What does this fold into?
Amino acid sequence: MSAVKRFVLSTFCLFFALAGAVATPAVAAPVADEPSADWVWVRYLASAHPYSTVRTAAWSALISSAPDAAIDAFIDSGYDYAVSRAQERRSRNLDFIRRVYETTTAEYSPEVHAEAGRLLGRNATDSERELFVRSGYEDARTRDREYRDAVGEQERALVQADWDYVRLLSTDDPGEQVRLSASHAVREGATEDDLVEFFAYGWATGARLDLEVFRMRHAHDNMAWRATLTRLIADAQAAEQAAREAGEEAKEQAKTTAVQAWRQVGEHTGPARSGWTDAEEFALRQAENWRAVLAAATAAEGPNWAAILDPAGESETAWLAERNAAAQQAAYWESVLRQSREAEQRVQNQA
It folds into this structure.
């Protein structure tokens, strides 16, 4: 393992407590079997990244017979390759269908839910999935809507408080996609059927999209920050080595160069530290928001609010996990800053 990776892997990290146990790579750490910061980050991506290809590639690295090298390779190039694969049509279709399946229920969206479930099965063809994404999904939504209209139970259960609550969501919900979906449901000229559709489908779908956008944005940013960090640390370590080996006449200038190189490492942590702190605060706000939604759904009566009970609980849990993951990454970047400052001092104290 390179000196660069030893520096990165020696920084602070916490065990990301999610289901499943994976053997941790052996790293130079003061606590036996403590997972490295890279392991924690890849483990998070394996569990939470919206793209199935990224999750699979991350898991493959974690369970590799040579996990250190596999994790290094995943961070260096495997992530970008997995993302590019996910952007291919087949993978995009599968991700879309999986999202539809996971944000609908057989009770409130039977046609959509059943068809999405079938298309996730092994016997479904790529052409069938393509057709569903292009038109079948909207056709199934129309059938579900017609069924709800015919039964009329959801529409009869609507009260003015439901309209008021969704109007509040359209302006105050922390998630952009939920706000957009709510705005559509209560737009000028909206009907009771539009509001029923929001409770039955739009709310949970918007919630899932907000979570995925959050995960994608921060995953992309963190991978970019880490790539630059690796280069900066390599430059700083080389400069420090040059300062140790410099003759008397060139030593002070070499030390100045090495100190500046380590200072650049520390300065590079600024956007990452603030970005993850902001992410932690936003995730906490989302968790609190969904806790409030869950309380409102529990207190309310009728089939419309019942449809959001499970998505609300799942969303609160997911955002609490994101808050914890963001806190771990913020702590990691704080530790990089601390070690860069220690390195500056070490160079300055060189004889």
Observations:
- The first helix runs from residue 3 to 9.
- The mean pLDDT is 89.
